[in-house]
Amino acid sequence: MKKANMYMVLMFAVLLAVQPFIGGKTAEAVDRFSDVDNSHWAADEIEYLAEENVADGDASGNFRPDEPLTRAQASVMITSALDQDGLYPGIASFSDVDSDFWAYASIERAAQMEIFQGKNGNFNPNGSIEKAQVAAVAARAFFGSESKDAAGSVDFGDIDDDFWAKGYIKTLVDHNIVEDTGQFEPNEAATRAEFSAYLARTMNEDLRGGGDNSPEESEEDTGSRILYEGVVDASTPLNVRSGPGTENGVLYTLQDGTKVDVYEQTGSWLKISSHGGEGYVHGNYVTNVDEVDSDQDNEDKTAEAIADGKVNSSTLVVRDGPNASHDSIGRLSQGDTVKIYEETNGSWVLIKYNGDWAYTHSGYLDEKPAGESALSNKTIVIDAGHGDHDPGAQGNGLVEKNIVLDVALRVQSKLEDQGVNVVMTRDDDTFVSLSGRVNIAERADADSFVSIHANAATPSANGAETFYDSSYKSRESRELAQSIQDRLVQETGMNYRRVADTGFYVIRNTTMPSTLIELGFVTNTRDANRMKQAGYENRAAQAVVNGIEDYYEW
Ligand code: ZN
Fold first, then answer.
1. Distance between CA atoms of 142 and 22, rounded to whole angstroms?
2. Taking ligand 1, which is a single-atom ion, which protein residues have CB atoms under 5 Å away?
3. According to the model, what pLDDT value does residue 308 have?
């Protein structure tokens, strides 16, 4: 048996939060499923997944190992394997997956984690998955999206070096999850047994093949895979997220000056570990202590960035020289940020990529001069819902039009302190029509539109929810909504209800990134009591401002 690999164990322990690995013990297939006996080639893997509550059979006790795996089944299994199945789904994304569909939450979560994507607004939950896609899904989920670029060839007769999923397949081969021989049959539909085998072997090293020829981490790496020690350098608490990107949920926050261990870099995100456990933070807010302390200062370390860049295309190739004839050394994804150190000839800029000098094309970067506040000179419309004869929601002594105006005025003043040009749709108890509100935002040519409301429903409904609409600036609106929702939950203590795509008039018709916040339910006793607490309006306003800042900060 292969030596226990501490790094992988550590990584999986965090990713999966499964109970300690059944080290040394191979899961034994018992007669759990009537159609999977001990001689089935994937019996151990299926048994392991069943033990871990990742996979289940049908009502009659069959696993149906040779049936094609559906996308819905794969979503359930993989989010469950990642221990992400209990989380809020957040977003209603697909027209063919209703919220009462049995796998709804898992599908939403899998999409949110970018494990699966839909097509033209549909998820196709009952569709099968080609084996190449299964390899991509498993590799991305467990070894990161950079596994796409894994170098080297594979021996499979039907997988050549240009095949889109070659990197993913190579990653699975390198980890002894698939045996690199014969045909891979990338376009065949994967069966439930095949997917189970990939998943179980990814989760549990004891189920993998190979051994002596294992190419990954050797003995001397064991236990010391920290890239460097860093220290948090952020003026506001730094969000530690479950994955590399703001779409991932916030696990906990870190204060300025906290020390962290940095394990890996994914685009502009760092995988770190600190007192709160492992997670991901944006690299802009962590300073490398090793470098600061190093005696060997060289020009790399004293160079000052002239601008920040943010990738605005789906991928952007990074090269080792300033034109397209130079070798590609990696790629950035949409939303990744880089420090720009030099404009070179033409459109190429000098950046840092994984700590090294590199070049990329500036045509796919939004740029802002170094040191400029993300919020300064932005025009933001703050829309306090309702007003005058339209009180909005009422309950437990609270009236929506009053509470949202109070919060909105505080948001205005806090944003103005940061150099934002704030446009209010109302700043007193007057009535403005919905189209009037949209017109104000359009005339102001605003950079974003934030509508503030409070909810009413049955007494049990509770929590904060934030909406976006996909008619205009869909991705940006969703990011804005998510940023504000995260802060509302974190800073006002409301339950996380959801972030969802809805067609509310003011966010459907404004053409800039826009969001509609429901602070909480005045009709719920607990929410209402929170809203009545001293300082609530100020905390809510600060949360909205922090969320807006999170969205713009890069
Ligand atoms: Zn309202």
1. 19
2. 385, 392, 453
3. 86
Q: What pLDDT does residue 499 have?
A: 95
Does residue 207 surpass a pLDDT of 90? no
Report the range out of 84-88, 253-257, 307-311, 465-469 with the highest average pLDDT.
465-469
Give the bridge partners for 279, in sequence order.
272
Residue whose entry in the numeric block shows the structure tokens 């300082």: 535
Q: Nearest to residue 142, comparing CAs of 59, 216, 61, 233?
A: 216
64 in the Ramachandran plot: left (φ > 0), alpha (ψ -120 to 50) or beta?
left
User: For 93, what's the count of Cα atoms within 13 Å in the CB-facing half-sphere?
Assistant: 26
Question: From the CA of 454, how far away is ligand 1's center (Å)?
Answer: 5
Alpha helix positions (H), 339-456: 400-417, 434-443
* 0.90 exceeded by pTM: no
- Name the residue type at position 265: Q
Distance 375 CA to ligand 1 centre (A): 27
First to last CA, the chain: 46
| The residue type at 33 | F
CA of 530 to the centre of ligand 1 (A): 18
Mean pLDDT of 11-39: 51
Residues 415-449 have pLDDT tens digits of 999 889 999 999 999 999 999 999 999 999 999 99
For residue 139, CA distances in Å to 107, 166, 324, 419, 549 come to 18, 11, 29, 44, 33
* CA atoms of 167 and 165, how far apart (whole Å): 6
Residue 309 in contact with residue 342, Cβ under 8 Å?
A: no
- For range 170-176, the mean pLDDT: 86
Cβ contacts of 47 within 8 Å, gap of 6 or more = 27, 28, 29, 30, 32, 36
Question: Which residues fall within 8 angstroms of residue 100, CB to CB, at 6 or more apart?
Answer: none
Q: What pLDDT does 221 receive?
A: 39
The pLDDT of residue 208 is 77
CA of 280 to the centre of ligand 1 (A): 35
Measure 534 CA to ligand 1 centroid, in angstroms. 22
User: CA-to-CA distance for 333 and 316, rounded, in angstroms?
Assistant: 6
Q: Which two tokens stand for residue 432?
A: 């403005």
